Structure formats: C-alpha cells, structure tokens
Amino acid sequence: MAIKIRLARGGSKKRPFYRVVAADSRAPRDGRFIEKLGTYNPLLPKDSEDRVKLDVEKIQEWIAKGAQPTDRVARFLEAAGVRDKAERANLKKAEPGKKAKERAKEREEKAAKAAEAAAAAAAAPAPEAPAEEASAE
C-alpha cells in the first residue's frame, strides 16, 4: 500500500480549508485517510502562524515508514525545516512563451525607433521664421 502525505480539501465554496493527511494513494482526495497530520488555511495572511500547522513528529514517523509527501506538502516541510530544499522540475515555468518574447522584441524595436526619432529631432537645428525678420526690417 503506497502512502501519501497530502492535502484533503474542506470548507465551503470559495472558502477553502485543507487538512494535511496520511492517506492511501488510491483513496479519493477528500475521502478516506489514515491519520490527520495538520491543517492549512490559505485564506489567512502569509505571515500568520495559524496558516500552516503541522504535527512534525507524526509526519517524520510517516516518512520513516515510507510515506511520500506531495509537492505542496513538501514545500510546507521545507519551510518548517523538516526537509532539505529540493530542486524544482519546472525551471522553465517562469520563462515567457514564444509569442510573449516576440511581443517584447517588437516593443523594444518600437521604443528604439522612437528614441532615434527623438534624438534626430533634437539634433536638427530649429528652422527660423524668415517672415518675422522681413517684417522687422
């Protein structure tokens, strides 16, 4: 039996609340679990102590028995200092896509052309009005 340490969702619509549980990997997300190991309330501010509560001793016991934490629970454990920081597999996630790169390049070219035009206009001497000179004479 493969054991996972994962989140089980509770709470009402648009008001999520999660329990950190040890469960059989084949059980449904919000269904049967073996033991409750903590809670996570994403609605609280990030600096709140009540946002993530973990029973670290129980979690370490389950990990010693072979339970695998999910990605999100592993991040909670890293923040609590229980696990070492792991390398993330999705390094390219923050990188913009192909179309976004093309749009950024076009914007840069347009800004460069506008800067060139402004520099050329500033470098060109201002034309003097000959009509005013003629009327002054």
UniProtKB/TrEMBL annotation:
Positions with biased composition (Basic and acidic residues): 87-113
Protein name, per record: Small ribosomal subunit protein bS16
UniProt feature coiled coil, ranges: none
Region Disordered, annotated ranges: 87-137
Signal peptide, first to last residue: none
Compositional bias ranges of the Low complexity kind: 114-126
GO BP terms in the entry: translation
Alphabetical keyword list: Ribonucleoprotein, Ribosomal protein
Family, per entry: Belongs to the bacterial ribosomal protein bS16 family.
NCBIfam families: S16
Gene Ontology molecular functions: structural constituent of ribosome
GO cellular component annotations of the record: cytoplasm; small ribosomal subunit
